[in-house]
Design a protein that fits this description.
single chain, Rossmann fold, alpha/beta
């Protein structure tokens, strides 16, 4: 989810309800855990919404009135969705019952010609308003999705790191958790993201695929493993005291971009596409060896289960299936 029209809004600009509860909510045994989720119409958020519903959580989706609902239409009922661009955000915390956890997955990467104000709105201002209101209404937990990128790389990474500072500031009053995500990928992901983009390039047999030298190392983690990490963190936070904890989410295995490209190309043996390494420069403040520390998640019983080869195979197979369906006149609803 990206920005609404009112971009630069002060944190306390939302109306304050006169009956807002105070203090952290105490978990009640047997009571359904209610999660307010942003970004549910996106790739990660939709997968997380489906998993939470399957696990018995009550999921409330914060979205925009014009959001594409195809990814969640079969998972979340329309009356459990809140249009953030049409009503004050405080109403999302009263209409559906007491919120136990806020999970912020809405992100603007800046890839679709987003303006800087739109990027800042999605990655900083929206979660900041959510954080402020959550504290007012006694929400116990705030779970944030973060990036492994250095804040100097671009507007996206800077805005994500700026919110992280605010989350830490509020951690004396809420259980604050942040998941620093490595490159996650999987079937059905957005083709503007790196793995999805590469798959589309090879499938379309683009003659030359322009890339950096490709010596930078990245950790590629499958979407199901990322979703499992979020679920473990949400479950663990239910009985924790206020404080800030950060978790790295990755496979634990870093490979060079060059290796990733070559492994992916192997699934397209007849492609006429040629990767051109060195055609593009490295980004500013490029991380040359990203190695996440996943020991924190392992303590929660989490571990990555899908290898890179298995994950790429599933991703490519899904792309082939979609191309076949399109060629036969079968279109997604």
């Amino acid at each position: 989810m990206t920005a609404s029209k009112n971009v630069f809004m002060f944190v306390n600009s939302e109306p304050t309800a006169s009956a807002a509860p105070t203090g952290l909510a105490t978990p009640v045994a047997g009571q359904q855990h209610r999660v307010l989720l942003t970004g549910a119409t996106g790739y990660l958020g939709s997968r997380l919404a489906a998993r939470l519903v399957a696990d018995g959580f009550h999921v409330v989706v914060v979205k925009r009135s014009f959001s594409d609902l195809r990814r969640i239409s079969a998972t979340v009922a329309r009356d459990q969705m809140f249009d953030v661009d049409l009503e004050p955000l405080t109403k999302a915390f009263t209409r559906f019952g007491r919120i136990d956890s806020v999970v912020h997955c809405a992100t603007d990467y800046g890839r679709k010609q987003s303006s800087v104000p739109e990027i800042v709105e999605a990655n900083l201002m929206l979660p900041l308003r959510l954080l402020h209101i959550a504290e007012e209404f006694g929400v116990r937990t705030f779970v944030n999705s973060d990036t492994f990128l250095d804040k100097r790389v671009n507007e996206y990474s800077l805005s994500k790191k700026q919110f992280l500072d605010w989350l830490k500031l509020h951690s004396s009053r809420l259980v604050c958790r942040s998941l620093r995500l490595e490159h996650f990928y999987g079937p059905g992901d957005d083709p503007t993201k790196f793995v999805g983009w590469l798959v589309s390039q090879f499938a379309a047999e683009v003659p030359e695929i322009r890339l950096t030298p490709g010596e930078q190392k990245r950790d590629f983690v499958f979407i199901d493993d990322v979703v499992e990490a979020f679920v473990r963190v949400i479950q663990d936070s239910r009985n924790q005291s206020p404080g800030f904890v950060e978790f790295d989410v990755g496979s634990g295995q870093s490979v060079t971009i060059r290796t990733l490209v070559q492994e992916l190309k192997a699934f397209f043996p007849d492609t006429r596409s040629t990767p051109i390494f060195g055609a593009l420069p490295y980004r500013r403040a490029e991380i040359m060896d990203s190695r996440p520390d996943i020991s924190g998640l392992r303590k929660l019983g989490w571990q990555p289960r899908v290898s890179l080869k298995e994950g790429l195979a599933m991703t490519v197979q899904a792309a082939f299936t979609q191309l076949t369906e399109l060629s036969q006149g079968v279109f997604p609803e």
